[in-house]
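Example record

One chain of 335 residues, shown exactly as stored in the release files.
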Amino acid sequence: MPTFCRITCRSLALIAVFSLFVISAFAAEPGPKPALPGAGKGEGPVARVNGNEIPAIELKRAQKILQPGQSAARLSADEQKELDRKLVDQIVSAELLFETARKLEIKDLDKQVDAKMALARARFATDEDFAAAIHDLDMTEKDLREYTRRDVIIANFVTATIVPKITVSEEECKKFYDQNISEFHQDEKVRASHILCGIDAKASAEDKKKAREKAEKLRKELIGGADFAKLARENSSCPSSKQGGDLGFFGRGQMVQPFEQAAFALKPGEISDVVETPYGYHIIKQTERTKADTAPFDVVRSKIEEHLKNRKVNAAVEDLVTELRKTAKIDILLK
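Predicted structure tokens for this chain:
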């Protein structure tokens, strides 16, 4: 996938950063504050924004989200201090943006929060997995809902006040395309279906022989005119059997070597010999093929426009936060 597409898939990049900190680093609103998990352990606030304290737990959550693969043991004390300063600075920016955004009335706020919570829950197989993920961030589900509410408020504000002002011209899109033409190169791909006679990793020689014999028998049926999708649904041990064995399009490097070599050696409509891989014995049918090519401008124009619009929105949000900082009272309290 082109780099710019990977960016646009994240929606509004900078807003995503702010949303991350709204969810993972909730800065409490004025008034009575509920006890936060991990708070009250003798650690003071890490910052104060217009009189609102940001407790240390917010920084800890930000560290967990943005440093999952970066062990603190690998950083020197000075490096960790510098990183923490940057994280707190982002949290402060999120709080400033929220203070402004909450002035906008949202009539269906609870409905939007419910929908966003449902999406978060849907990423996990079970309620237990969802609860464990929340717990790992030193949160409760109630905390997550509150942070989600703030996220929705910020997103609505940006959509209502900033996005409508952003425009992208045809000339800008074409210029981006011409200057980044390599990003739109598409490698050769094939679309294939297969029938897998699977074997266990510890299968005996006899079990392997039976699986191969079954595959050979099915191949003879296919050569004789049997319906590939029907045989796949009835015999394949791969989950793709539900789709008649269809694996969709894939490029080189995405499948195990014997399978890849066989699939790319075929022509559309051809059926392979029985192919052995660590998963078992496959019969492969190539159904479509696309040549290596560069996507035409007309095909990718809408994605380019979305990408450029998101960049402009991000810049506008940064400019807004810069202006808010000029009049805000901010105290960084990191020790």
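Notes: DSSP finds twelve helices and nine strands in the chain.
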